[in-house]
Amino acid sequence: MQGNRSVIAVLNEVLTCELTSINQYFLHARMYKNWGLERLNSAAYKKSIKDMKQADALIERILFLEGLPNLQKLGKLYIGEHTPEMLQCDMDFELEQLPLLKRAIALCEEQQDYVSRDILEDILEYEEDYVDWLETQQYQISALGLENYLQTQVEEGE
């Protein structure tokens, strides 16, 4: 099925974000693991895996629309050097991605590509939930203090 060129282009933009996100969250996960922060490791690792699955769904959709998925392009990685900075880097990345997703959803709606829209809405919902999780972590750091917060992150997560 031949898809709309603008829809394929915006799906590739979102794919670039997802591929970038996989790398950022995977590296942050391994940094947390190296520091013994198992709960943060688990959360960041699960996020990287979820992003991989989202990228896979986008790749399949682009191919179905007879487009060519661009897996060569990556965006800028935001890598922190300590936990609060890493959480802020992840927040900055998420907040850059949300407007793109909303624009992509609106374009798919306009072009009556409801399947692509649904895929993007699922991604948007997950990303907004992750922003909420990041905000919670930042709040806990401010409320508990960094040392107490880090102590809570040593035990294995859910």
From TrEMBL:
It catalyses: 4 Fe(2+) + O2 + 4 H(+) = 4 Fe(3+) + 2 H2O; Fe(2+)(in) = Fe(2+)(out). Pfam families: Ferritin (PF00210). Its EC number is 1.16.3.1. The keyword Ligase does not apply. CDD domains: Bacterioferritin (cd00907). One of its GO terms (molecular function) is ferroxidase activity. Coiled coil: none annotated. It is an enzyme of class 1 (oxidoreductase). Keywords: Heme, Iron, Iron storage, Metal-binding, Oxidoreductase. It comes from the Bacteria. Residues 1-145 form the Ferritin-like diiron domain. Its cofactor is heme b. Iron-storage protein, whose ferroxidase center binds Fe(2+), oxidizes it using dioxygen to Fe(3+), and participates in the subsequent Fe(3+) oxide mineral core formation within the central cavity of the BFR protein shell. This is Bacterioferritin. The gene is bfr.
